[in-house]
Amino acid sequence: MAEPVTNIQLSPSKTLGSINGHDSIVEPNQTLSQDAQLNQENDVVVPTGKRNREDNDGEESSLHPMWKTSLCSFYRSHNNTCNHGDTCRYAHGEEELRPRPDNTWDPTSERAKKALKTETGEKCAVSEDVMMTEAVVDDDDYGSNHALSKCLVHLPRKWSSENLRNFLNEQGIAFKHAKKKKGMMIGFVTFEDEEQLKSSSKDLEGKTIGNKTVKVADVIPRSFEKKSNPSVASHQELDEGVDVPSSGALDAENNDKLAVDGSVSKSRSLRDTRNARKACPNGVSLPDWILKSREIGGLPCKLEGIIASPIVNGYRNKCEFSVGYSLEGKVTVGFMMGNFREGVTAVGEPIECPNVSNIACKYATIFQEFLQDSDLPVWNRFKNTGFWRQLTVREGRTSGNTDPAVTFGGIAEVMLIVQVSTANFDDALVAAEFKRLAQAFVAGGATSQCPTLPLTALIVQDHQGISNVAPADAPLHLLTLPKAGGDPEIGENNNAMDVRIHDYINNLQFSISPTAFFQVNTLAAEKLYSLAGDWACLGPDTLLFDICCGTGTIGLTLAHRVGMVIGIEMNASAVSDAHKNAEINGIKNIRFICSKAEDVMGSLLREYLNMTKKEDDSNTPKSGNDIPEDNACPEAENGEMASHCPENNNAEVGSEVQKDSTSEQVDGISEQAENVTGSQLRDDVNVPKEQSDDPNVCGSGNDIPGDSTCPGPETSEMTSRSENNNAEVGSEVQKGNSSENGNTSMQQFKNIVAIVDPPRAGLHPTVIKALRTHPRLRRLVYISCNPESLVANAIELCTPSPLKIEKGNKDNRGWRNMSSAGLARHRAKSMPISEAFHPVKAMAVDLFPHTPHCELVMLLER
Ligand SMILES: C[S@@+](CC[C@H](N)C(=O)[O-])C[C@H]1O[C@@H](n2cnc3c(N)ncnc32)[C@H](O)[C@@H]1O
């Protein structure tokens, strides 16, 4: 998940969720009350008579923090009567209602609705503020007098400058220059004089284009007033899939867990089973999980609760700081304060962001100070010119120590990646600036702290693209770090691609290369992976597919609990890290495939599970006959169990998997013949950094230059896909199928499980098809950073097959405007006939305290 995150549009105030009935607070590791019955009426949750309405503790009841903080639905629906009378812990009417401990109101109450309106209004006001800064304004755009310019917001993105001028002329609005920013909803108008500015601005106010009202905003803030802080930026940027921390907008002690509860339960996409209903074919009865969803507030399965982050402040091990201008026009290194597409370019310092470590803040400050005197310009997002773009601070630890009492909370390694755009700049000047920069970081680190700030590597990433999201193959250069005491310089001849930082999960060491994905909250990730493992119901005869495995974290941390792991990852350097990580931790029963999952998933399943393509294609709904009915599950590490698991302690070879699996060739490419292609899919959503279509990434379907092939396996036990020749996939898989691994031969595996951890866009349709149509895959644990794509993928995985398959509709008009769930619904109709999964349970894990985002784990079984 780009790293974070759930793409949930939430108010920053983090209102309470209502998933567990009236008592919405979920303690970490506490599951929701069993008897809370949910009702979908008005999309809110109301209790049934089952719960205990009276607080038996008499006087204590009045002290209960949730006393009368929720409206009594019984009272409401029974003509204002309730058998519990005054002793009922729920409020009988709005008058009795009390605010909740976090100062929010029962979401079904009039007060909450009123508060929401105000809040939405405020939010709009904030997001509509154009925090364009003086420094990004060009004379060409505004004439020589910035004070005579205005910014118009909510213009149609498609408009050109000519459209804007025509509009102004048609409306009789006088102006001097007008310029529309291509692809954005903003334009700039300059006026002849003060008088024209005033009268035209007045005329422009309230004008509408389509259904949008044009907003007229100042280009240059006349006086600095801190209207916002990066917390706003964080919400907006997170919504775009950008991994940005928030400042401490959220304060109450409990807010983190409440936020997670709130975000999950309030996510409309998660609570909306309409698309799933519609995806169900005519003549086929609705599956139980859809029928029962009404009882649980529209959710596809029970939300078990929230696992809290073991660390709440300074938890981020990676921060990407933008370079830009503050509202005062000062060069600043920090977070964007709003959405660039809406014209917000101001950058705020990260110092008030509680989730950013002190170290990261200090390096941002050092860089910011350096930039005040740099001879090279900062990046101009409008003109796509400039030099300095972004600073990424990645932190590593020497051991799993995060004790704040230990120096820097155990952070012992820091990798700094400075993103620049060197095009059109003089090489000598650039080299001199880099040298100065290295000195500044070393000197700043030495003087600003005692002991010296850790700094392991300083890397420059050269990137010319429009946004700061660089492709995986953007050139990296390692800069030499001068030694503070005049010792010889280090790093001179090293290759940036060889540089690593390290972190620990479950006592395993992970080596992380500069651009590889690694969860930003390591300690919470540890909990996430354990939960996924517990729900996956693992055992010695389990074959685990770790799909989108990154540096191998999930597979490696669970390898000791299974017979064998196959990790699939498209980022070549992450796969290289994964190999290294297996090696340094002495883990042998794991293989990594460097490829896009959509290119290899079908063939891997067939090859590893000993099926011919013919069998696979013609599979009909199966009752799971080959799976023992015995639901015993091996003891989970933290006591969590999947709802029903085949017995998987038995290492006996299942007869159905004893066939020779070497005959099958792979046709990953043909697997891609979907109605909606991956790129179409990704067009509709924000593509996270990790999901690059970079042609140099192995398995991307293009020729691969010699210097960017995947690294070879570091042990003979591991498989790495270094060529993009799909015909080779089969033979490599066959290698994996040989007996070279002794007792990890795949023929022993009776329990086949997939843990998927895709980026924000979710799984590619081809991967879903492969997982869904493989009858031996009975259990799938989905880790999601984006409920929308989770819901879309779940629709395809979980809706019943039709009696007869519809031919795919090639006419894709209108699909661009469809939601991902709508698209999934259409794709589900042409899914080959196969047994559907059903959602069993879900759990949130708070990987991102101080933000409304969390990771969601959902167990699907069949
Ligand atoms: C949310 S990260 C999860 C990584 C890993 N499971 C972890 O927790 O560290 C998603 C990963 O999927 C990879 N990825 C994105 N698209 C992919 C694709 N089509 N096939 C395989 N891997 C993909 C990204 O490179 C990234 O490493």
Automatic annotation (TrEMBL):
Residues 66-95 form the C3H1-type domain. The keyword Kinase does not apply. It holds the Pfam family tRNA_U5-meth_tr. The active site is at C785 (nucleophile), C785. GO terms for biological process: methylation; RNA processing. Keywords: Metal-binding, Methyltransferase, S-adenosyl-L-methionine, Transferase, Zinc, Zinc-finger. Signal peptide: none annotated. The keyword Methyltransferase applies. A zinc finger (C3H1-type) spans 66-95. InterPro entries: Methyltranfer_dom (IPR025714), MeTrfase_TrmA_AS (IPR030390), Nucleotide-bd_a/b_plait_sf (IPR012677), RBD_domain_sf (IPR035979), SAM-dependent_MTases_sf (IPR029063), TRM2_met (IPR045850), U5_MeTrfase_fam (IPR010280), Znf_CCCH (IPR000571). Residues 1-18, 27-42, 716-744 have a biased composition (Polar residues). One of its GO terms (molecular function) is RNA binding. S-adenosyl-L-methionine binds at Q519, E569, D757. It comes from the Eukaryota. Residues 1-63, 226-252, 614-744 are annotated as: Disordered. Residues 681-692 have a biased composition (Basic and acidic residues). Belongs to the class I-like SAM-binding methyltransferase superfamily. RNA M5U methyltransferase family. This is C3H1-type domain-containing protein. It comes from Phaseolus vulgaris (Kidney bean).
